[in-house]
Amino acid sequence: MKTIKDKLITPGQMKALHATFRTLRMNDEARHDCIYSFTGGRTQSSKDLTLREAQQLLEKLNPMDDKAREMQRREAQMVFRDIYRLSFLIPQLNQGFTSDNEEEYQMNVAKLNVWARKYTKARKDVTRMALWELQETKKQLEAFMRREERKTKK
Prior knowledge:
mainly alpha, 6 helices, about 65% helix
């Protein structure tokens, strides 16, 4: 099974990390020491960070207050709802099923989680994804829907 742990830092994460270092007024030596310490001596260079390490380091350097954390949690819930609604439009997921009671809802979420572990970039349950992973998954589903619509028009 593919995981994101071995993938390297994205250009967006690199940009955010260096902006954070500038905001914290870290010079090159301090930045390298920070990365070296954070990775347990594995590397001093930000370009050698994994996707997950970069995410964790950004979270550590930019701690959220309770209000920001709550806003992010609510946004993640809204994106999850959008993904759940989209799943009812996709034949391989929940199309043709209902969500009339708690059992059906849980079953539909379970099917969505199985699909997410197999087909999304995050390769994990939708219910365990971070906000940015949910947003990527939503984009992926929307792109899938556009392809399906083009197929039916032909």
